[in-house]
Amino acid sequence: MALHSAAAHSSEQVLPFRESLMAMLGVAFVIMLVALDSTIVGTALPTIVAELKGFDLYAWVATSYLLTSVITVPIFGRLGDYYGRKPFVIVSIILFTAASILCGMADSMLWLVIGRGAQGIGGGMLVGTAFACIPDLFPGARVRLRWQVMMSTAFGIATAVGPSLGGFLTQYWGWRWVFFVNLPVGLLSLFFVWKYLPHLRHTDPDAKIRLDWPGALLITSSLGCLQLFVEMLPKHGLTVGMLALLLASIASFVALWKWEHHAPQPILPFDLLFHPKLSALFLLSVLSGFSMFSLMFFAPLLYQGGFGLSPQEAGLLITPLVACIMIGSISNGRIITRIKNPMIMLYIGFILLALSCLGVVISNRWTSHGVIAVFMLLGGLGLGFILPNLTVFIQQEAGRENLGIATALLQSLRMIGSMLGTAITGTLINHLYAGSVRQALEGDKAEQWLSSFSDPQILISHETQMTVLKQLADAGHNGQLLIEAARDGLIGSIHAGVGVAVVVTVIAIGLVSRVPKVTLHLQPEPAVVGE
User: Fold this and answer.
1) Residue 13's pLDDT band (boundaries 50, 70, 90)?
2) If you write DSSP's letter for every residue of 144-157 in order, what string do you get?
3) Do 159 and 17 have their domain in common?
């Protein structure tokens, strides 16, 4: 049975207040599930690498998740447009929670990377459908902005708790609990979504859709080969195999470009991607993802491996970054509808994010924790001004017929930026750190310990460090000086890596001027409520 939303509470929102509140609680818990996972893992990751031994796969813990998410977000964003989003949200919660348990059971870095890839499939389904539920429930842009404060609060609570909780769990319960903690949140979100989220559709229930599987395969091939090329190039050099990967990525992208122009229902609509009103916003999403993940993923490694802090101390330093995303989002919701040019908030957001990245680059072991916290606070406020505005602006300009796919595409591009950020930054850090350590060991004629120092886990794991120091002392070397040289090498390499994010964010500031002026007004269209 299907009902049109003529009985809706108003033209600005589909349901009365109480029903809207309960439905939004369901979406809020889903967003908390994704946000908690994205921040809690970064704090625990240095400890995970120290135990599972696999620094060469450090960036892959993030990029395997992002790669699978990038593929699934547009697929389920499109499916949600046709079949309604509720069934996919339910399935994604179950898949994400099950994959979290799989990650918590990992006994090798490869297992963890595979588990994170499975988690990314569920996370991509969540992002592709849950975020688009909000404009479904609230077609009016101004009403939607008020309700999105609730989403910003949920996101902020999860991200604020994430780093500290990750540090606490890692230090006292073990790193596996940073994944197991998703189980109660997943069950809670499943209950609210199942019971209260309405099944809204914007198409005829009898309409047929043919999923663009060739497009999905070509996206997978182009991004997967590019990811492998970026990750493996520093280790293997520009060999025939590396050139083959690069050519395969380029060929897959060209084939994708040609195929999507002829596909009846393209998974990646290039016409939408290069629309004059949307293209700059999509590109800003890529750049914001690059800088955000470079900051969130490698700052914990800097504080633990470089500055010698405990996981809990590093988590506390990261907390202002993620907590202030909530504060920035709430403040943004109050300001954005009262100013003539909403683009001002994007300018301010990217300037603050650039200052935060610059703060990481100039900080050292003697920088006070208060100053570091201020730099993190600026980054959080900046992201709080950037992320919700990009979403609202895209939804405003794309129109009802492209609402789901435009929202999904925005999230996908941010994930692509995140994937490139972690891959490029991580590759640069690995290369510079390895060169720095090799030089220090050669200077002390201790090259035989290169394998022990090549993984920064020696700077994080006290047990490993004591073992290597004893070996070096027995051989007549000053191991503590070599440890300090390794710390300096790691600090310098992370400074260089996050320095790339500074440049990217400055480019984004210039790009904001190319975004056409957005007016926050929307004429709602009727939805279909399926029962």
Assistant:
1) low
2) HHHHHHHHHHHHHH
3) yes
Do 273 and 401 belong together in one domain?
A: yes
Domain identity same for 67 and 52: yes
Q: Cβ distance 106 to 119 under 8 Å?
A: no
Neighbours of 142 (CB within 10 A): 13
Taking only the tens place, the pLDDT of each residue in 436-483 is 888 887 877 877 777 777 767 677 767 777 888 888 887 777 778 888
Q: Rounded to whole angstroms, how far apart are CA atoms 131 and 302?
A: 32
- Whether 170 and 62 map to the same domain: the answer is yes
DSSP-derived secondary structure for 90-155: HHHHHHHHHHHHHHHT-SSHHHHHHHHHHHHHHHHHHHHHHHHHHHHH--SHHHHHHHHHHHHHHH
Write the CATH number for 320. Answer: 1.20.1250.20
Q: Are residues 203 and 339 in the same domain?
A: yes
Q: Between vectors from CA 11 to CA 8 and to CA 16, what angle results, nearest 5°?
A: 40
Name the amino acid, one letter, at 401.
E
Q: Tell me the pLDDT tens digit for each residue of 449-460.
A: 777 777 676 777
Which residues have CB under 8 Å from 159's CB, separation 6+?
A: 35, 36, 38, 39, 322, 323, 325, 326
pTM: 0.73
Cα dihedral 245, 248, 254, 255 in deg (nearest 10): -150
Let me know the angle formed at the C-alpha of 133 by 326 and 161, rounded to the nearest 5 degrees: 25
pLDDT bin (cut points 50, 70, 90) of residue 376 is very high
CA distance linking residue 23 with residue 137, whole number of Å: 9
The domain containing residue 230 runs over which residues? 219-264
The continuous run of DSSP H or E covering 201 comes out as strand 199-201
> What CA dihedral angle connects 85, 90, 288 and 373, to 10 degrees?
140
Q: Is residue 107 part of a domain?
A: yes
Q: CA of 340: how far to CAs of 153, 385, 395, 396, 527, in Å? A: 25, 16, 19, 16, 30
Kindly list the distances between the CA atom of residue 429 and the CA atoms of 129, 155, 212, 494, in Å, as whole numbers in the listed order. 35, 29, 37, 6
Q: What is the DSSP letter of 175?
A: T
